[in-house]
Amino acid sequence: MATRSKELATVDVESSLQKVAAQGVSKLVTLASPWVVGLLLFGVGAAFHVILDTDDPAVASWTAFLMSVAVIVLTGVTYGQSHARGPWGKAHTTATTLLTGLWVTAATINGPTTVVTGRIALIGGFTLCATWNIRTVIRLKGWDAPGALADPLAMLFGQGAGRAGLAVEARTTAATEHKVQGDVQLEAGRQTAEDLQKKVPYIESGIGLPPGSITTSIDPDDASRAKVTISDPRVMKHPIPWPGPSRPGGSIADPIRHGLWQDLDEVAYVIVGHHLQIMGQTGSGKSIGGAWNLLGEIVTRYDAAVFAIDITKGEQTLGPLAEALHRFETTKAGAKALLADVQARVKERTDQLAAKQLQKWKPGCGLTYWVVWIEEFPDVYDALSDKEQEAFLSMLKAIRSAGGSVVMSLQRSDYTQMPTLARGQLAKACFGVESGHDAGFGLSEAQQDAGARPELWSNKQPGMTYWDAPSIPDERIAMPMRTFAWGLDSAGGFDDERANAAMREHAAFWPAFAKPVDEGTAAISRLPGGGQALAAPAEALEHAIDPGDDEDEEVRNVASEYLTEDDPDPEVQAGLDDPIVDQLDDPEWEFAPPEVTMTPQQRGEALIAHLQGLWDAGARDFATRDLRPLWESTDMSRAWAQKQLKKLVEADVLGYDDDAQRYLMPERPEVG
C-alpha cells in the first residue's frame, strides 16, 4: 500500500508541493528589493539636484514647497492603500514613504552628498533597508532557524491571500511528502476563517495551484484563525487498488478504512451511532466505491450484521456480497417485511440495553450491531404505504439507541426523493454530481462553507467523494477522498469481472452464517446459521418424499458428470469448493453416507437425513449444490434429488425463492 501511494504521488512530473517550494525560493528577491530601491532613490535625489539647481532663493523655496506637497500626497496614498495590512505593516510602509520623500526633497535642495544628506542616506538608508529585510525574514518564519530554507505557507499563502484581498499570517505546522499543513491568522476584527474559506479558489489561482489543492477548517477556539492543508488533487485521478480489510475480526466500533484522503492518509471512519446518506449521480461510484468498500469492511467485524435491500437493481450491486449478508431482499414484499421485522425488534433491543444500564450500544453489550443498507432508497420508500413510511421514520429515530445504523444510497436527495425528517438525521457522503445545485443536496452546510465541490468530478472520476460524519475531523470534511477499486486490469483501469470475482471471494471468506449473533438478529436473518439450531420434525420432510420413486436408468450413477471442473452448470461449478455443509455452525455434524449401492428406500432416507442435518446445523435455506455429499458418495443422482425437492416445495414443506434460486427451510418455532 505504501509503495502504491508513492506511485500515485508521482503521477505528474511537477506536484503542487514542488510548485510551492519552487515559488518559495523566488521570494529571495524580496530581500534585495529595498537595497535596489534605495539606490534608485539616491539617483533620483542627485538628478533632481542637477536639474532643479538654481541660485534664486524664490525658485528654491517653491521647489521645496511643491516637493513637500508631493511627499505628503504620496504618504497619504500609501497609508490609504495599506488598510489591509496590520498596524505594524501600515506604520512601516507609511513611514518609509514619508522619510524617503523628505530625503529626496533635502537632496534636491542641498545635494545628495553633502555632510547632512549624505550621512542620512548612508546611515538612515541602511537602517531603513535593514528594517524591510527583518520584516521579510520574520514573515518567512523559519529562515532564521538553522538548516531551514523557508516556510512554504508563509512565503506563498500570504501572497495568494493578498491577491484575493485578505491579509493573513501563515505558519507551517507539518509537512510530509504529500502535504503541507499550517495555521493561518487573519486580521482580527476585520476578517474571519469563513472569509478565508470563501476565498480559497482565488487563493489557489493567486498561487497557481490546481483547483481543490487547498482545504481549510475553522479553528474552534478563535474565529480569526484557520487550519489549512495543501495537497495535490492530481494524485487521485487514477484508481487505487483495494488493500484488503483493515481490521478483520475487530469490532464494528473500530474505524473503517474505505479509501485514501487526497493527502494519501488512510480514512478512519466509524459508522456506529449515526445514519448515513450516500449520494452521487449515475456512474460516480457510490455503489461500488461506497457500498462495496464500507460493506467489505463491515462484514469482517465480529459484532455486526448487515440487512440489505435493493429492489431496483436486484443482485447487480449487492449480489456479490450476498453470502456475507445476514439478509438481502430484492423484492418490494421482501423489503417491506425486512423493515417491519427491524421495527418490531427495536424496543426489545432498547429494553435489553436499559437492563444493562446502557443508554446506547457499545462493544461487548451482547447485541449484534445492525447495519440496514438500502440501495436506491427512493424506490424503496415509494413502495411503502403511508403507514409503513411513518413506521420507517419512527424506526430511523429509535434504531441508533438500539444499536443500528441505516445507510441510504440515492442519486439526488431533494425533497421528492428523501423525507426532510430523515435527511436532517443523516451524515453525508457525496460522490460526483452534475452541478453545484445538486451538490447542495449531498453536502452538509459545513462542507459547502468549507468549499467542497463534487461537481468538479461529475462521473468522470468514479470513487471520488467527500465525507462528513461524526468521526471525520473538521479539517477533512472538505478534503476529497478516493475509495478503493476492487478489480483493476493490467493497465490500471477498473475491470468489472475482476471486481465481482474479488468481492465474491471476499464474501465467501466472511460468510454471514459463520458469525455468532444474538437471538433477535437471528430471528430477522434469512441466511444459514442465522438462527439457533433447533430440531426439525423429520416427518415434515419425510411425508413428501416417495422413497419408492426410483429414478430413470439414464440418470443413475452420474455423479462424475456433475463433479468435473468444466461443468457448464454455474450453480454446480460455484459450489464445488465451498458447499454450505462445510461451513455450518455445528462442526460436529457430518453426513454419514449409506452403502454406495442404494435402494430407493435408502435414497429417500439419505436425503431426509441430509436435510435434517442442514436444519440442525442452523441452515435457513440451501441450494442444490449443498447436496453435493450425496452424489459424491452414493449412487444418488442430482436429477432425482431435485425431483424430490420439487415435491417438498409443492407440499409446502420447503419454500423456494425464485430470485435467489434457493430452497427455504420450514419456519422455525419462536424461541421462548
Distance between the termini: 50 Å
Ranges with pLDDT <50 over ≥5 residues? 1-16, 141-149, 528-540, 551-595
Query: Average pLDDT value?
Result: 79
- The total count of helices amounts to 24
Largest sheet, in brief, is: 10 strands, mixed
The assigned structural class equals alpha/beta
Radius of gyration: 37 Å
Strand content: 5-15%
Q: Categorize the overall geometry.
A: elongated
What is the percent of helical residues?
A: 40-55%
Instruction: Report the count of strand segments.
Output: 17
Structural account:
By secondary structure, the protein is of the alpha/beta class. The strands form 3 sheets. Strands 5, 6, 7, 8, 9, 10, 11, 12, 13 and 14 form a 10-stranded mixed sheet that branches. Strands 1-2-4-3 form a 4-stranded antiparallel sheet, with helices on one face. Strands 15-17-16 form a 3-stranded antiparallel sheet, with helices on one face. Strand 3 and strand 4 (225-231) form a beta hairpin. The longest helix has 25 residues, at 57-81. Keywords: Membrane, Transmembrane, Transmembrane helix. This is FtsK domain-containing protein. The chain crosses the membrane at residues 28-52, 58-79. It comes from Streptosporangium pseudovulgare.
Strand and helix map with partners:
Blueprint: H1 2-9, H2 16-25, H3 29-51, H4 57-81, H5 87-110, H6 115-139, H7 152-163, E1 168-175, E2 179-186, H8 193-207, E3 214-218, E4 225-231, E5 240-241, E6 259-261, E7 275-279, H9 286-298, E8 304-309, H10 315-318, E9 327-329, H11 332-355, E10 369-374, H12 377-383, H13 386-402, E11 404-410, H14 420-423, E12 426-431, H15 436-442, H16 445-449, E13 464-468, E14 481-485, H17 496-509, H18 519-524, H19 538-542, H20 559-562, H21 570-574, H22 600-616, E15 621-622, H23 628-633, H24 638-650, E16 655-657, E17 662-664
Parallel strand pairs: 5-14, 7-11, 7-12, 8-9, 8-10, 10-11
Antiparallel strand pairs: 1-2, 2-4, 3-4, 6-14, 12-13, 13-14, 15-17, 16-17
Helix pairs in contact: 2-7, 3-5, 3-6, 4-5, 5-6, 7-8, 11-13
